[in-house]
Amino acid sequence: MPRKILLGVSGCIAAYKACEMLREMQRRGCDVEVVMTANATRFVSPHTFSALSGRPALVDNFADGADPIPHIRMAEECDAFLVAPCTANVAAKIAAGIADDLLTTCALAAHDRLLVAPAMNVHMYESPATRQNLDALRARGVRVIEPGSGYLACGDTGKGRLADVSDIVSAALDPAVEAPLERLPLAGRKVMVTAGPTVEWLDPVRYVSNPSSGKMGFAVAKAARDAGADVTLVSGPVSLDDPDGVKVVRVNTASEMLEACEEHFDGCDIAVFAAAVSDYRPRMRSERKLKKGVDGESLACIEMVENPDILATLASRKAPGQFVVGFAAETDHVVEHAREKLQSKGADMVVANQVGEHKGFREDGNAAFLVSDRGSLELPYMPKDELAAKILEVACDNFKVC
Ligand code: C5P
Fold it and tell me: With 70 as the cut, is the pLDDT of residue 402 above it?
C-alpha cells in the first residue's frame, strides 16, 4: 500500500515549494492529497495541485461535492498530515484548536499524525507568540520541522526559511510520525548533551582549542527532542543556531562546561557527552594581551594544567537508572581504546569513531562503533542526525530507559 500523505498548504510565499514537495513524495511512492487555506490559493492555484496530485485540491468545507464531510474522510485516510508551509497564523490556530476552515479542521481530526514545517519572516518566527505556539505543538507530539536561516523573501536575513524540501519529505515519510506523545520513546525523560569544543584562554586574544563543530552533539540534542525528551544542551563556542525546543547553555571553558553540567546532570535520565573538551588549559591566563618581545617567555613556552574530566566526574556520581554516553575520537585501535574508556570513565556506552583527514570533526556524517559491556555494534557511515537517532535508540533498547 502506498503511504498516504495529506499535504496542507497555507498562505505564504513558500507555497510554491509545496508543488516540489508533492512531486518528491510521489517519486518516493506516496499517494498525496492536498488541502489549502483560502490565502494559499492567492499564491498557487488549487488547479496546479489538482493537476499534480490527480485529485481535487480542497479548500472549502462546504463546497458542493461528492464528499459531505471531507475533513473526517481526509484525516481518516492519511498516514500523515503535513502542513507545509505552515504560517504563523495556521500554527497559532492549530495550537489553540481553532478549526475555522478545512485545513485547520483536518489538523484537529488528524492531530496524532501531524507535522508542520513553519515558514515566515524572522521577526514573526522569533515572536514570543509563535515560539509558544510551536512549543505547545511540540509538547503534544507534533513534529515541528525546524526552518532554516538565511535570506528571506521579505529581504530580512535570519531564521524562518522553509526547511529543505527533501528533509520535509523524509520527515513526512518517517513512520514515527504516527506516534502520539505518550508513544514517543523519551516522552517525560530528561536528556543532557554536551557539544562543541572548549576554549582555554592564554590572554584576551589567544586560546587553545580544537576543530569540533558541535554538529554531533547538536544532532543528538535534536534527536532526543524529537523523541519527546526535555533536553538541555551545554555547548562550547560553535557557529550553529540554538535548536528550537531545546534549552541551550553556552559556555567557553572546560571549567564553565563542568559547572553547567553539574547543574543539569542530577535528574537527567540520559547524559551524552559529545563535547571535545580541551584536556589541558594554560596555567596562567593573562588579563592583558601578551606582547611579542616583552612576554616572549610566556608565549614561547606555555605551561599547561589538566582540565577536569567532565564525563568521568559526573559518571562517578551516576544514580541508579541514569545512562551515560561518552565519545571517543581515536586515530587508531578505535574499539580497544573505546573499551578502555568505558571502564576508566565509568560510562555505560562509548561512541567510538576514527578521526583524521575528512573523518570525524566538522563532517556532516560519521561511521562509529557503539561500545558497551554487551559488545560493540558497528554503524556504517551515515549523516550525523541518523547516527544520533541510532545512539538514542540503542541507549533506550539496551538499558530500558523507556
Ligand atoms: O579522554 P577523551 O578526551 O578521549 O574522552 C572523550 C570523552 O570524554 C568525550 O565523551 C568527552 O566529551 C569527554 N571528556 C570530558 N572532559 C574532558 C575530556 C573529555 O567530558 N576533560
Answer: no
Greater pLDDT, 49 or 357: 49
Atom 4, ligand 1: which residue's CA is nearest? Answer: 328
The C-alpha cell at 44 is: 498557487
Q: Is 216 in the pocket of ligand 1 (CB under 6 A)?
A: no
278 lines ligand 1 (CB under 6 A): no
Q: Is residue 154 annotated as a catalytic residue, yes or no?
A: yes
Q: Is 273 in the pocket of ligand 1 (CB under 6 A)?
A: yes
Q: Which of 154, 261, 268, 402 is catalytic?
A: 154
pLDDT in tens, 180-199: 666 678 988 999 999 999 99
Strand 323-330 relative to strand 270-273: parallel, antiparallel, unpaired? parallel
> How long, in residues, is the chain?
402
Ligand 1: nearest atom to the Cα of 194: 12
Quick count: other Cβ atoms within 10 Å of Cβ 399?
A: 17
353 lines ligand 1 (CB under 6 A): no
Q: Which tens digits make up the pLDDT trace of 198-229?
A: 999 999 999 999 999 999 999 999 999 988 89
Interval between CA 135 and ligand 1 midpoint (Å): 32
CA 143/CA 17 separation, integer angstroms: 19
Please name the residues in contact with 172: beta carbons below 8 A apart, sequence gap of 6 or more.
5, 25, 30, 80, 82, 115
CA-to-CA dists, residue 176 to 188, 217, 270, angstroms: 17, 22, 21
pLDDT confidence of residue 174:
85
| Ligand 1 probe mutation, 310, 330, 336, most atoms within 8 A of CB | 310
**Mean pLDDT (whole number) for 24-51:** 97
Cell 582540565 locates to 307
Task: List pLDDT tens digits, range 229-244.
Answer: 999 999 999 999 999 8
